Amino acid sequence: MLLERPDEAETIGDDGHRRIRDDILFGRLRPGQKLRLDGLKESYGVSVSTLREILSRLAAEGLVLAEGRRGFEVAPVSIDNLKELAELRLLLEGHAMAASFARADVEWEGRVVSAHHKLASTERLMGKKVGEPEQWKRYDSEFHQALISNCGSRAMMEAHAAVFDKYFRYQMIAFNYRGEEPGHQHRSLLDCALARDAAEAKAVLAAHVEGCVTHALATGALR
């Protein structure tokens, strides 16, 4: 077996990190699942040494638990953790939206409108039961990121992304498509963005996030 050159190892490591991370976020690797290095090596085509680096990186992100000599497992989920993530998301996203609205320009409006168009189109397909859940959730993520993309703070964007991804994992594990209400809320958020109405946007966002948490608890998926 040939040794990986440093530049190749970095490329392979980044690709492996993205693929494993996506599989955790989308629930293909389930909460609490043991991450056996030999099995992952076969599945992802990454060396054991690179896998250890990837899993340590994911552990630092809070998506994997390192168990010392017992290895690694996918981070578990809980009702309390979901509620905590929802509160953090509202705090960060609400503040960042207000900052984005205050700094609004034509380019930002274009990003928000474009992201909403893709999301709304996918939500219509989900309502007809012909949409792809993963595509729907990707566009959901893109829309919320677009809303805060003009906040002017890289640190805030990074903090929000870290919280949103963990919250996103709960969406894929515990949330089902809830019908038309989320779509109406997304449209309201778009209207608030175009009107620069940060106060109303925060109220809509609170109803949106809290509705998702209530729905997740009702499904019993986290018990």
How would you describe this structure to a colleague?
It is built from nine helices and three strands, in the order H-E-H-H-E-E-H-H-H-H-H-H. The chain has helices at 6-25, 37-44, 48-60, 79-102, 106-127, 133-148, 154-174, 180-195, 198-219, and strands at residues 34-35, 64-66, 72-74. The model is unreliable at 1-9 (pLDDT under 50). The chain has two domains: 6-74, Winged helix-like DNA-binding domain superfamily/Winged helix DNA-binding domain (Arc Repressor Mutant, subunit A, Orthogonal Bundle), CATH 1.10.10.10; 79-219, Four Helix Bundle (Hemerythrin (Met), subunit A) (Up-down Bundle), CATH 1.20.120.530. Strands 1-3-2 form a three-stranded antiparallel beta sheet. The protein is mainly alpha-helical.
